[in-house]
Each structure stands twice: as C-alpha cells, then as structure tokens.
Amino acid sequence: MDSITQAALGAAVGGAVLGRRLGRKSILIGAALGTLPDLDVVLDYGDAVANYTEHRGFSHSLFVLTGLGTLMALLAARFAPARDISLRHWWLFFVLCLTTHPLLDALTTYGTQLWWPLDVRPSAWPIVFIIDPLYTLPLLIGIIVALVSGNGRRGPAWGLALSSLYLVFAFGAKSLVEYRLAPELAERGLQEAPRLVQPTPFNTLLWRVTVIDGDDQHEALVSVFDGASPIQFERFSRGAQWEPAALASANGARLDWFAGPYLRYDVELIDDVPTLTATDLRLGFPGFHPFTFTLLEADLDAGQWHPLASEQRETPARANGEALALLGQRILDPEAPLCLGELVDERWREEVAC
Description:
354 residues, alpha+beta, 9 strands
C-alpha cells in the first residue's frame, strides 16, 4: 500500500494499543514504525529486476519484524521512562505496528515475502488496490481525532474497526465476482487455468480478471453490479514462444518466481539490437503495464541470446485520466464503452470481444 496508508495504519495500531498510556506519542511512534519496512526502497540490489523482486523482501518478513519488535520491546521495558507499561504491552505495540504493514501489503497484487528467508513465492491475496481512499480515510480520521483530543486510543480503535470492515466488504465483493466467474470459465474449458482476480484502481466494485492459457492472456472486467450479464473476455498474445529463452536466464527465472505465469514476452529493437523483454501483467491493465524489463540481447552472428544487466523500460504515455473515467462508468453500466484491446499495441491483440 502507499506510504500514507501504511503510516496511518501504524499510527492507528499504536494508538489502539498504548494510546491510553502514551497519548499522542503512541500515534507518532506507530506512524514511524508503520513506514519502516518500506525503507528497503533505498537499497540497490544491482539491476532493475533485482530491485523489483527484492522489494517487500527481508524488510517485510514476519520473522524479521517479529524479532525486531521483540528487541524493541525489551529495550523499551528496560529503558523507557514509562515504567508502568508491561513487557507484554510493549511487545504488542512494537510487533503489531511493524507486522500489520506487510500483512496489509499482502492484500494487494504486487506480492510480499512474508516468509523470507524461506524459499517460497511472495504472498498475494489481492482484495484492495495499492491506493484505496475508502480504506485509508477511517484511519486518518481516527488518528486526527486522537491528535486533537489527546485521547490516543478511542479514535484509532474506531478507525481500525471501520477500515477492517471495509476489507471484509472487499473480500465479499471478490468472492461474488469469483462465484460469477466460475461457470463462465468452465464453459470455455478454462476452469483449471491460472487466474488472477484483483480490484481496479481506487475501488473494490470493479474487478479485473486475468486468465492465462498457454500463449493466451484472457482479460475481463466484472462489476459487482453486473447481475446476470455475460462476462465479456478479450484475448491477447503474451509471447509465450520466447518464454524458454527467458527462463534460461537468471533474471527471467527470478521474474517467473516473482510473477509467473503472469508475464508477457516481447522482442524489440533497442539501439538496433533485438532485445527480449518481460512485462509483469499483474500490475496496471492492458495498455497500462508499468513494469517491463530487458532480459536478453541477440547475438545475430552466433544466433544466440546473451543476458543483460536488466533495465526497466519506460511506459508509453497514455490517456490515464480518460481510462479511469471509463472504468468509473463501467462500474455501474455493463454496456459502458470500454475496450481494453484499443489500448494495446496491435501485435498483442488477438481477439477483441467488445
């Protein structure tokens, strides 16, 4: 989630746990703890793919953050002026302020390495977009009330309760979409295909569905208000013929671990050299995917691919505001004119059902 939301969550948790004893200090300390895991963005791991896949890594590990919170609790119980706060309350304060950050991140699409250093794929159970005002606003109101009144507990507790109810609503909305989706996929013989259902920007009413079937990337938008309207899918090629070459490289294998099978491959000329790139299809939506990385360059004389120090490609400028307006119309109207295929380079467009 965005930094404001994470700071607000940490502040609300801090106020709810120790607001009665520490007052405004619990809010401020909680906000600082809530943003601490994201300081990993200042680290340089060597190239673009490494920086991309290591974000939300060790600094978001529940093992690391629980250990850090325990150490902070021991130090606070020993040296803090507030001697009447028990070790147990200090432990809850520090550990919850730290670990709620990655747990919330795991409810977005990007992927969070909750179990680092274990060699498992990042966790992602997307029910909220990375920026969602309806989740953040109750937290902000609660901590503002606490800062103004000096009562550090009641406002944050109410803010946490309301924001948590919103997450329950988001889970229910996603479950409804998946319930409607199941027979549609079965009819197309795609019930076993990898699929990703995630909210579209800034809301939990309109959901993006991505289904991968070999070289085919099927895309649909489903609103909680669609009722019995049939789901309209669009189909795009994802360049799967280049996948074996990509996976043979270290960066390609790393991206597959991080985002597979939701990757698209392309060969484009960069400085007159054919270059293999990979795009993370999970983030953004067709025509608006922000993360594309160079992987390999061709040696035309030898007929081989050579690995590159990966770089992130610039995303072509798009009419983002217009697209967001169309998404807003689509929430309430299943007939709203929104064709994702019109936003995508023609070479990726296979079949447009709109």
